[in-house]
UniProtKB/TrEMBL annotation:
First and last residue of the signal peptide: 1-24
Gly residues bias locations: 36-76
SUPFAM superfamilies: Calcium-dependent phosphotriesterase
Record flagged with keyword tRNA-binding: no
Keywords associated with the record: Signal
Superkingdom, taxonomy of origin: Bacteria
Protein name: SBBP repeat-containing protein
Cited InterPro entries: 6-blade_b-propeller_TolB-like, Motility_Chemotaxis_Reg, SBBP_repeat
Pfam family, one: SBBP
Species, as recorded: Polyangium jinanense
Amino acid sequence: MLRRSRLLSLSFSTITLALLSAVAGCGEPTPNTTGGAQGGAGGTGGTGGEGGQGGGGQGGQGGQGGQGGQGGQGGGQGGQGGMAGCTIGTTQTCYFGPDGTEGVGACKAGVQTCEPNGAWGACVDEVLPAAVETCNGADDDCNGAVDDNPSCVCQPGEMMDCYDGPQGTAGVGVCVMGKATCAPDGQSYGACQGQVMPSAEVCNMLDDDCDGTVDDGIGCACTPNTTETCYTGPNNTAGVGVCKAGTHTCLPDGTAYGACMGEVLPSVDNCASPADEDCSGAALACTGNHIASKGLGDASNQIGTDVAVDAQGNVYVIGNLEGTIDFGGAIGALTSAGSTDVLVAKYDPTGTVLWAKKYGNASTQIGNGIAVDGAGNVYVTGAFQGAISFGGANVTSAGGDDLYVAKLDTTGGHVWTKTLGNTVTQQGTDVGVDAQGSVYVTGHFSGDLPFVGVIANQGGFDVLLLKYSSTGNPVWGKGFGGTGTQYGYEIAVTPVGQVTLVGAFQESANFGGAAPLTSAGDYDIVVAQYDQAGGHLWSKGFGDASEQRGLAVAVDPTDGDVVVTGELAGSVSFDGGNTTLTSADGTGNVDGFLAKFDSAGNHAWSKRFGSTGAQRGKGLAIDIFGNIVITGEFFGQIDLGGGVVPSAGGRDAFVGKLNPNGGSLWLKRYGSGMLTSQAGEAVAVDPLTNIWVTGSFESVIDFGGGPFTSAGGIDMFLAKLLP
């Protein structure tokens, strides 16, 4: 609908007159330099006359409804035509919506203004019916009904009570209703906010499941947040030794007490401490007394070369077998295939054999090192000629002695075997494993070796350091050598894969540092440490013109301190010359030594043990308290600081224990009183700090449980001693 203020109608005669006047004005005007006279008034409905050309006067006033005449052109302004449609600047109401909608619902009229051309402008501020009714509480389509769109549920922003829980639970216990807010489009309500619905009952003195009963049916163990004394150790140990009760607090849900805080439970007794850590009623003394022992062999030679213990206290031994060893029972007798075979055996914590296996053929095979991982898998290394099988396919030497490393499972079953060799000599002397199951091997080699790339030999024997993955894949390999001969004897591997190596070197040899180490004369001691990637951390050489060798190494599990033992002739200083250790025989027979370094290789303390005759340390272990256990062999006498212990006549085995500062706790020798040879080759400590030692003996040996007599040649022994 169009609605305007009063509109005039024009007669036919008036229109005709206007047209004629317009045509007449189209002729060429006569110049007028003084301005034209005022045009006459237009007739009713007609068009005003045009002013003359020149300084034209004002056009005449148009008649009612007509158009005013135009003023003359030239110096003056032509006359203004009369207003045909509206008076400029006037306004009127307007509305262009459907009939019957103006003023209904949201619809309303607007305003028009007469523009300079005499025509009405746009209708401003009018509101016309919307095409679709929206849910906003208004009549948008102006049909007289508010929000009559079927999709409208609510007015945007309005709120209502809501509750999604089971009927009858709102207002019971902790349950309360919430509020839901209408969505901006009015077509739905949002989520119910603030409501609390039934939940599982907890011990909090509230009715959580809103059934009208507090803390029902859940077996509350205690009042939330209350505290009482507690003790989780064995009966009758609280208040004994270091053991004491603690306190625990009831959990907020009341279902149980939390951890017992502040209690002290029994732990492994440190014999070097006066405290009763295992809360047995008496502190453990450091004695080294006998627990169990075995002598194994026949008229040929058998030697135990290394020993390891797992987390359950089981013990693993590797050695060299000639002839026969009878283990009895289901295992029975194991006999070498010809020359020397590798022997591996597992015993339980009481010393009962669980399994034993031998590996070799008619050629010579030797076992030098053994290690066990956290899962009880066993790793062995050594050297072999000919062919050998550890339960898998036979592997064959490339010519001379080849290095092997093999992995066995906890029952002795074969997992994998790797060999490394060429036509000359390679030997694995020790093996270790980290917490990730990566395997590390040291030894010595001649000739170049293919590994990860080529490990180049620099002449003579060089030190070898290898890393394998848990599946036996080569990871990295290092050769350390120079102008002389070098040997790697033993390694200690930490759980994170840090490797400390000991050995001996001649002349000049580079162990990965910025500069090579230089021997002072004969063989010198080398101690070197590497990270899990084979990166050099530190290396040091110690010696003089005589012979010195590092034969065994152990790393303190608590602080990473390094302890080394071996043999020395002449003199050696481990602290840069402040303290010098000199063999009792000068440059003749060797004495044993012990030296301790911190984790960065700095000297802590060192000592020599020995007299005339030869003495050497051959095996080391460190317990969880940092106490040091050493084994080896000696003629004459030795003294670790607690008094002189003489040999029984020949070469005797010894086992000694020292505290972390090097103070002697005890020292024991094992020999026959005859001119025979006994030697402790390796030592390990179990989780209770009991000591396992293996080695060899001739004639008779007694660890305190009764004598064992050799069957003829050299027999192997295994003994378990108290801390």
